[in-house]
Design goal:
By secondary structure, the chain is of the alpha/beta class. The protein is built from 14 helices and 9 strands. Helix 2 packs parallel to helix 4 and helix 5 runs parallel beside helix 9.
């Protein structure tokens, strides 16, 4: 322990021993993904499967992206948690803000990405992930998480929503038959979207709230269904198609994420609904989380005002 030898204060006290199961790499993201790749290939190299778990600053996933790409190419099995996500490290400026990592999760073959907002969702996803890492047709898993404290929904039964959470989305607030707008979100932005839905309750007859836990899974299943239908299997429908199929054609989608807005912007293509994507497409600003959410128009007031702009005659009274 170099910190101990040099008498440098540290909150972590590690002992190097054969039975140790923790590797402290420091600022070395490429080495992290190389280590995860090596451990994640143990079943093919040595006949003994390991379940390696890595943690990394989410904005620095890109630093190790080359090693991550080749780890997935070789079918290494591991779980990587990137945190804190988005601009929730607002006071530290642009260098510590992750914008494009949701798109890495969406586009990287061999890697299944999730971004839950709540702990009970995360528990379901992690249980699935450790099985998926061992399946013959499984792969690696990426969790985009946050250190920004969120008020949890309390005890609730997610038994009937378990598969929806794993498929990528579920209705936090189901839409009615005359739904005018759906607010769809992924990750730590959840409280802002939920509050915005509350502001809209008086001005809009029907507002649905779609909790997206994995844009990656939703998009993958959708494109797979399109490919199957192109080959004649017309009865196949993907989870996102089933979720959005009962929405009226005039219903609009407003998507929000603490990340690049393109992550969820494709949802409007599923059933042809008008879509306004909100998110973060720039960096370099420094301030509180609230400051930056207002600056990038992903706070609760901006989300509600975006919905108001869809109908100029609709006016909100926000207190």
């Amino acid at each position: 322990d170099l910190f101990r030898e040099e008498k440098i204060p540290s909150t972590a006290k590690w002992d190097f021993a054969p039975e140790g199961q923790h590797l402290e790499l420091g600022i070395a993201e490429m080495n992290l993904f190389l280590a995860l790749a090596a451990a994640g290939l143990s079943h093919s190299l040595f006949g003994e499967r390991l379940l390696p778990v890595g943690t990394v600053y989410d904005p620095f996933v890109a630093r190790g992206h080359d090693a991550l790409n080749y780890a997935c190419y070789q079918d290494a099995r591991f779980l990587i948690a990137g945190t804190p996500s988005g601009i929730t490290l607002a006071p530290e400026g642009g260098a510590h803000q992750s914008i494009g990592t949701p798109l890495i999760g969406l586009t990287q073959p061999g890697l299944t990405a999730f971004e839950p907002a709540f702990a009970d969702e995360l528990a379901i996803i992690m249980e699935w992930a450790f099985s998926y890492m061992q399946d013959d047709d499984g792969g690696a898993v990426y969790l985009r998480l946050s250190t920004n404290p969120l008020e949890q929904p309390g005890e609730r039964s997610l038994g009937d929503r378990r598969q929806d959470i794993l498929d990528g989305a579920y209705w936090l607030r189901p839409p009615g038959p005359n739904c005018e707008v759906v607010l769809a979100y992924q990750g730590v932005i959840a409280p802002e979207v939920i509050a915005a839905a509350g502001y809209l309750a008086d001005a809009r007859r029907d507002v649905g709230v779609l909790a997206v836990t994995s844009a990656d899974r939703l998009h993958s299943e959708w494109t797979d269904a399109l490919a199957h239908r192109a080959k004649g299997a017309m009865s196949i429908a993907s989870p996102v198609e089933r979720l959005l199929s009962d929405l009226p054609r005039h219903c609009a989608l407003v998507t929000a994420i603490d990340g690049h807005p393109a992550t969820l912007s494709w949802l409007g293509s599923v059933m042809g609904h008008r879509t306004i994507p909100l998110g973060v497409a720039g960096f370099g600003q420094t301030g509180t989380i609230g400051d930056l959410y207002r600056h990038y128009r992903i706070d609760r007031y901006a989300i509600a005002k975006t919905v108001e702009s869809l109908s100029p005659g609709c006016h909100l009274k926000i207190i």
